[in-house]
Amino acid sequence: MERLRQKAEQMGLFLDDSQTACFQKYYEMLVEKNKVMNLTAITEKEEVIDKHFVDSLAFVKTGLETSGKKLLDLGTGAGFPGIPLKIAFPEMKILLLDSLNKRVRFLQEVIDALGLEGIEALHGRAEDFAKQKKYRENFDYVVSRAVANLSVLSEYCIPYVSAGGYFLPYKSGDVSQEIKESEKAVKILGGEMEDVVSFEIPGTDIHRTILKIRKKKAAPKRFPRKAGLPSKEPIH
């Protein structure tokens, strides 16, 4: 895990021995579970470090405060970026949300095995939980590494962000066209594009972007619409 420690340091993030031990255990559990369940196409250790762990930790590039903040990782999959963020920033309260129950069970196993506190894995659909008072407009940050189009992703994620908070989608490749096409959706949902944070994963040629979309006002109650509609008829 020295590779991880060095790359994190290059981003200004310092991991101690107990944190790198957590990442090692997480890696082992991920690869083991992946034999019986499709969690990730990436299993080679160096690639997992670069493309999953370091990529997740690139949150640090946003310059946002972590102390006492609540973060939702929507469509977390195998736990990225939520679990790496919890290991690196134990002071954050984190909720992992995924629509596949067996993935959520795996995430709970990881949480238990690593002894992580202040993190919960929840099974359900984004559009259902967004209607509940307990979750709606209740998070400082909502992150997602889902590959969905930004207009669609905004509809699912922005309703969870509290006023003054941020929706932070992780993206790869050229996102300029996607940003342009999602302008209307972001505005309707109460958001505003504040910054585009582009970077390369240290020591690689992997180019990544985290968008900083600030929540200005409450999202209209009708959003998100019921399952399937956002992707079928995106807001534009």
Please describe the structure with a list of short key phrases separated by commas or semicolons.
globular, alpha/beta, Rossmann fold, 7 strands, 236 residues
Textual characterization of the structure:
The structure is a single chain. Strand 2, helix 5 and strand 3 (119-123) form a beta-alpha-beta unit. The chain has one domain: Vaccinia Virus protein VP39 (Rossmann fold). It has 236 residues and is an alpha/beta fold. The mean pLDDT is 95. The N and C termini lie far apart (44 Å). The chain is 38% helix and 22% strand.
Largest sheet: 7 strands, mixed
Question: What average pLDDT do the residues reach?
Answer: 95
Order of helices and strands: HHHEHEHEHEHEHEEH
The number of domains is 1
For the biggest β-sheet, the strand order reads 3-2-1-4-5-7-6
Full CATH superfamily name: Vaccinia Virus protein VP39
Shape: globular
| Helix-strand category | alpha/beta
Number of extended strands:
7
Question: Can you tell me the CATH topology?
Answer: Rossmann fold
N-end to C-end Cα span: 44 Å
Uncertain runs are none
Strand content: 15-25%
Q: Give the name of the CATH architecture.
A: 3-Layer(aba) Sandwich
Discrete helix count: 9
Please tell me how large the radius of gyration is. 17 Å
The level 1 CATH classification is: Alpha Beta
Please bin the fraction of helical residues: 25-40%
